[in-house]
């Protein structure tokens, strides 16, 4: 992890054309948006989950079902608090650790558009902005608590009031805020994001 603290922009061999960084609270639709974008953009895009290295480590060291942890069901909720506590300790030592691991993949090396579907802290956003200046667009997903409950969300003390859910609540500089409340906001947001994709792909 020490190397990560010394990592410079020049050491980043891969430079994407565009990084779309998505954030939002649980059950606001951030993962759904990420999947929609990657499905629509196709082979030019890579879907990046910053939580994947955390879940991979947890599955490997605790003998758990990795695919279930990566899914959107109740299985991962059993282990969420412990995974959060461990990952927060790692981040305190090296804020960019999971960003580096999550983007160290063949898909990211080969594809010019990255869709990061689960940014949770200002340090996540700033890491991408630092290494890829001028190539990052930030998106915040919003949904009403009523709709989130309809999607299966219930408030959990220690999770929904923790830094992993709240650290970006006051982030001031979103390029796009998507109101995902079944009023057409999601589709409008996707249209806006596609204008970004077209611009960055054509800007050679």
TrEMBL record:
Superkingdom to which the source organism belongs: Eukaryota
GO BP, sorted A to Z: cholesterol biosynthetic process; isopentenyl diphosphate biosynthetic process, mevalonate pathway
Residue positions binding ATP: 25-31, 151, 180
Name of the protein: Phosphomevalonate kinase
Pathway(s) per entry: Isoprenoid biosynthesis; isopentenyl diphosphate biosynthesis via mevalonate pathway; isopentenyl diphosphate from (R)-mevalonate: step 2/3
Keyword match Transferase: yes
Subcellular localization(s) per the UniProt record: Cytoplasm, Cytosol
GO molecular function terms listed in the Swiss-Prot or TrEMBL record: ATP binding; phosphomevalonate kinase activity
Organism: Darwinula stevensoni
Pfam families in the cross-refs: P-mevalo_kinase
Keyword Kinase: yes
Predominant location category: cytoplasm
Enzyme class of the recorded protein, top EC level: transferase
InterPro entries: P-loop_NTPase (IPR027417), Pmev_kin_anim (IPR005919)
Membrane spanning residue stretches: none
């Amino acid at each position: 992890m020490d190397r990560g603290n010394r990592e410079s922009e020049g050491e980043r061999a891969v430079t994407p054309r565009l990084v779309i960084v998505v954030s939002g609270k649980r059950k606001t639709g951030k993962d759904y948006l990420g999947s929609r974008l990657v499905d629509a953009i196709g082979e030019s895009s890579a879907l990046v989950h910053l939580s994947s290295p955390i879940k991979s480590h947890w599955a490997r060291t605790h003998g758990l079902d990795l695919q279930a942890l990566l899914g959107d069901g109740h299985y991962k909720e059993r282990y969420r608090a412990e995974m959060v506590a461990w990952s927060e300790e790692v981040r305190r030592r090296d804020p960019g650790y999971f960003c580096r691991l999550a983007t160290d993949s063949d898909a990211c090396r080969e594809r010019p558009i990255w869709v990061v579907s689960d940014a949770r802290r200002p340090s996540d956003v700033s890491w991408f902005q630092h290494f890829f200046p001028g190539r990052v667009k930030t998106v915040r997903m919003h949904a009403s608590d009523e709709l989130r409950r309809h999607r299966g969300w219930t408030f959990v003390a220690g999770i929904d009031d923790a830094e992993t859910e709240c650290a970006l609540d006051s982030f001031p500089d979103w390029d796009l805020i998507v109101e995902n409340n079944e009023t057409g906001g999601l589709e409008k947001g996707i249209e806006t994001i596609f204008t970004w994709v077209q611009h960055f792909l054509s800007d050679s």
